[in-house]
Amino acid sequence: MIRLSPPLTDEVVERLRAGDRVLINGTVYTARDAAHARLVERIRNGEPLPFDLQGQVIYFVGPTPAPPGRPIGSAGPTTSYRMDPYSPLLVAHGLKAMIGKGKRSAEVREALKRHGAVYLGAVGGAGALLSKRIVAAEIVAYEDLGPEAIRRLEVRDFPAVVINDAHGGDLYEMGRAKYAREG
Predict the structure, then answer these.
(1) 98-106 — which CB contacts under 8 Å span 24+ positions?
(2) What's the angle, vertex CA 130, arms to CA 25 and CA 121, rounded to 5?
(3) Per the confidence metrics, is the pTM higher than 0.85?
(4) Which domains, from first to last, does the chain contain?
(5) What tens-digit pLDDT sequence spans the chain (183 residues)?
């Protein structure tokens, strides 16, 4: 296991390879497609963002309401392709990692290589378990979006796997190739 503590540096991202298992400790931001659209609009309009993207990690999640005594409800990953139209611009502006589930577009994978960033996969269907790795949560922007508001999460040993690395490595393609060789 590789331990990551955002904000991530170029050197840390450079060492990650598709297939590496990671545990994230520290601050992670949440955002889904509606929040991504607003972030991109602000960048295009030259307006400040609600948080500094440099070295940050965005988790594609729309958590359920927090039960009593917990900072957050179920917090499983959202299918990532819905963020594909927005991710290249965010990566170009300093975002270093995204967490979600599913494949990313060729444009996103190219942006990861060009700007030195990674895409991490979290286990879908395990939102209740993943929420136990979130020790604090607060809305920092777009409260009107409800579950899709941008939140600042504090995570401890949040598990993920590097799906796409900054060198063009793709865990899904690696698995497909291995299966073809063994099949």
Answers:
(1) 98/57, 98/58, 98/59, 98/60, 99/24, 99/28, 99/57, 99/58, 99/59, 99/60, 99/61, 99/160, 100/59, 100/60, 101/60, 101/77, 103/172, 104/80, 104/163, 104/164, 105/81
(2) 75
(3) yes
(4) 2-182 (3.20.130.10)
(5) 999 999 999 999 999 999 999 999 999 999 999 999 999 999 999 999 999 999 999 999 999 999 999 999 999 999 999 999 999 999 999 999 999 999 999 999 999 999 999 999 998 878 898 999 999 999 999 999 999 999 999 999 999 999 999 999 999 998 877 777 766
Tokens of 180: 């073809």
